[in-house]
Design brief:
Strand content: 15-25%
Distance between the termini: 29 Å
Low-confidence stretches: none
Order of helices and strands: EHHEEEHEHEHEHHEEEHE
Strand order of the largest sheet: 2-1-6-5-7
CATH topology of the largest domain: Alpha/beta knot
Number of helices: 8
Helix content: 25-40%
Largest sheet: 5 strands, parallel
Radius of gyration: 22 Å
Bound molecules: adenine
CATH architecture of the largest domain: 3-Layer(aba) Sandwich
Structural class: alpha/beta
CATH class of the largest domain: Alpha Beta
Length: about 220
């Protein structure tokens, strides 16, 4: 079973996500376990201080190293990988998702405010990860993105292993092609018809396969990084 541990000052953000059907079932079936830890529980003062003013001056607050150190120390198992989310990190992709899906435990540190004391990246985290070239308010959504992409690679989570393999290319990317369902023709207004490609209604499996191949995108192909 793979464990995901999230360290955050906003544990409520994850509440509805943990109730999402696939994630809920995967936990019930003990394929994965997601635990959300409130960083404030690892502070020592009555105010439960998690941030402070930056050395060198400047606007805003910086998250302190000590509560994060204590949290990771309390959570970390023998085979854990510790991730820190930051727009300064290495770009996350499908290949990374595959790599992470083989781990026993993934600890994810979510930063908020203007930044995190750099010693977290230097001494505590094994990797600093960015989910894209934009700045979020914090790492919480990044943690959901990582869980979402990693959990579905764990056998059993999105159905049978065979189903997963069917959509995997040799290069370990995912083959993604356009899908349609009923009705065959949708009319949003008079004289306008949105049709399903004829080939998909033909019942000709060879032609359907060719059509899907033509319009496939391989997500996460190593050569296209
Ligand atoms: N925190 C703020 N921006 C981020 C990003 N792009 N990726 C990961 N964590 C972040």
């Amino acid at each position: 079973m793979m464990k995901f541990d999230i360290v955050t000052i906003f544990p409520e953000i994850f509440e509805s996500y943990l109730n999402e059907s696939i994630i809920k079932r995967a936990q019930k079936e003990q394929l994965i376990k997601i635990k959300v830890h409130n960083l404030r529980d690892f502070t020592g003062d009555i105010h439960q201080t998690v941030d402070d003013r930056p050395f060198g001056g400047g606007r805003g607050m910086v998250m302190k190293v000590e509560p994060i150190y204590k949290a990771v120390k309390a959570i970390k198992g023998p085979k854990a990988k510790v991730l820190l989310f930051s727009p300064r990190g290495k770009k996350f992709n499908q290949k990374k998702a595959f790599e992470f899906s083989k781990l026993g435990q993934l600890i994810m540190i979510c930063g908020r405010y203007e930044g995190i004391d750099e010693r977290v990246a230097e001494y505590i985290a094994d990797e600093t990860i960015s989910i894209g070239d934009y700045v979020l308010m914090g790492g919480e959504i990044a943690a959901v993105v990582v869980i979402e992409s990693v959990a579905r690679l764990i056998p059993g989570v999105i159905g049978k292993l065979e189903l997963l393999k069917e959509r995997l290319s040799k290069e370990k990317g995912f083959i993604v092609y356009p899908q349609y369902t009923r009705p065959e023709t949708f009319s949003p207004k008079k004289r306008v018809e949105w049709k399903v490609p004829e080939v998909l209604l033909s019942g000709n499996h060879k032609r359907i396969k060719e059509w899907r191949k033509k319009y496939s995108k391989i997500v996460g192909e190593s050569s296209k990084e």
